[in-house]
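Tokens in:
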């Protein structure tokens, strides 16, 4: 759907007082991304000639956050109303363009709903029937049912207040007409603002018909003004994400207890247990199973890998047929080539484990390269940090790192080397040999007695 004549204007200059936040409202996160990002995505999906974003409160922060976005920024220094905001953008828009006005705080609109507004010939607006219309502008219709005006809640009389068809704020019209109508709008109303909504009455006065598209789903057009509405919008978005994954063939044990904060791509027969959070860019291969309460951020997980409960994976690449967790933590720069086992209380960072290497329990592998089929026993620690710099540990194929051994980096462990339990390895260990380094030889003290329990209460 390409619209070479379409210019989208997104209003995002308001303060968002009710959020009670130091951040501009449109930067509040929804699905892990600023609200405005969702609106920009929707705008982008229409392939317009240009997108103009009107900013005011926190303008610098908003612009900085979207420095890369292909948008035309428009500054509205003083927030004098929605009509005034649109006026600021119009000088940058050709007269014959079709203008679509969106709000930065209405983030759940879909391209499908907007299509009819964009394709209409004359002025068009998006309305919605609400069980509780209070606060919203009401759509006034004449006896033939044609739209005659919009009246804001604060300006409405009791009879108008009983109307349940409300203005979503989304509107489309030709740029030249908007310029004309807005030049004729005054701020003679309850809020002393230049209302965008007043253009409807002017359009009708000019003999034009204003087309109304009714949104079928009030959730889609809901505005976000406070934290409660933000939380509600988050649930709607999450339900959409979960539905998309179900449609893609994923088993979600409970779609209501799943959170996606970014982009997820999936293979066949993926199973996701409850309370899983997927963030950033996540790719799950065929047959991947994610246990309950896992957090996975920016990671690729290979076919057939099973991630057990309570595992945290961040900026990592996990190959096929691995078993991870429960209670494992893969930190940035971890690469598991495949057939790896990372058990409970194992932490990895900038660590590459070749095919079949295993760390079953209680280990730290940082700045390490671990060869094929290496066995990392419980309590093995790479001492990668000397207090100032990080150093590498390299372990050859088929080595066995005994329980509770410390590898003081930089250090190399040879292929098929065997490190005895409890060794502190400070120098390279050769291939094919047992290397042992313990502080003292073992001794036994005959006649030694167990300490007695203190009989006086503490
Ligand atoms: C507006 C509509 C109302 C509609 C409602 C839907 C008008 C006059 N009223 O009311 O009919 O039912 O939205 O949610 O249009 N903004 C600016 N600059 C300004 C003023 C606002 O950029 O000077 C932006 C805000 O940041 C916000 C949007 O425009 O994103 C809407 O403004 P807001 O003040 O919330 O309008 P409402 O009173 O909700
Ligand atoms: Ca609003």
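Residues out:
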């Amino acid at each position: 759907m390409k619209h070479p004549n379409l210019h989208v204007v997104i209003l995002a200059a308001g303060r968002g007082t009710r959020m009670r936040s130091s951040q501009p409202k449109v930067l509040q996160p929804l699905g892990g991304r600023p609200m405005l990002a969702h609106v920009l995505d929707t705008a982008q999906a229409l392939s317009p000639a240009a997108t103009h974003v009107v900013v005011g409160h926190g303008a610098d922060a908003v612009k900085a956050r979207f420095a890369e976005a292909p948008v035309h920024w428009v500054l509205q220094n003083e927030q004098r109303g929605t009509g005034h905001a649109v006026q600021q953008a119009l000088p940058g828009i050709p007269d014959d363009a079709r203008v679509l006005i969106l709000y930065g705080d209405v983030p759940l609109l879909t391209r499908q709903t907007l299509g009819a507004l964009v394709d209409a010939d004359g002025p068009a607006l998006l309305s919605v029937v609400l069980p509780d219309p209070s606060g919203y502008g009401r759509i006034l219709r004449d006896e033939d049912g044609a739209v005659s005006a919009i009246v804001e809640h604060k300006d409405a009389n009791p009879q108008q207040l009983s109307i349940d068809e409300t203005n979503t704020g989304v509107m489309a019209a030709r740029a030249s007409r908007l310029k004309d109508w807005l030049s004729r709008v005054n701020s003679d109303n309850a809020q002393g603002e230049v209302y965008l909504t007043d253009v409807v009455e002017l359009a009708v006065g000019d003999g034009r018909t204003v087309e109304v598209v009714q949104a079928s789903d009030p959730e889609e057009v809901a505005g976000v003004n406070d934290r409660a509405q933000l939380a509600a919008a988050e649930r709607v978005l999450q339900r959409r994400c979960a539905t998309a994954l179900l449609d893609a063939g994923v088993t979600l044990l409970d779609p209501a207890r799943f959170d996606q904060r970014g982009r997820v791509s999936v293979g066949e027969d993926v199973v996701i247990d409850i309370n899983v959070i997927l963030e950033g860019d996540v790719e799950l291969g065929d047959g991947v199973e994610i246990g309950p309460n896992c957090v996975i951020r920016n990671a690729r997980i290979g076919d057939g890998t099973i991630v057990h409960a309570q595992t945290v994976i961040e900026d990592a690449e996990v190959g096929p047929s691995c078993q991870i967790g429960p209670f494992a933590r893969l930190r940035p720069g971890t690469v598991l080539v495949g057939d790896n086992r990372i058990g409970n209380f194992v932490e990895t960072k900038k660590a590459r484990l070749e095919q079949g290497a295993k760390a079953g329990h209680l280990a730290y592998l940082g700045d390490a390269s671990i060869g094929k089929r290496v066995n990392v026993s419980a309590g093995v620690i790479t001492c990668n940090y000397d207090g100032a710099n990080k150093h590498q540990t390299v372990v050859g194929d088929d080595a066995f790192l005994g329980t509770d051994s410390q590898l003081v980096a930089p250090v190399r462990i040879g292929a098929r080397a065997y490190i005895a339990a409890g060794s502190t390895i400070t120098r390279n260990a050769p291939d094919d040999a047992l290397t042992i380094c313990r502080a003292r030889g073992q001794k036994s003290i005959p006649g030694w007695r167990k300490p007695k329990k203190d009989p006086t209460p503490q």
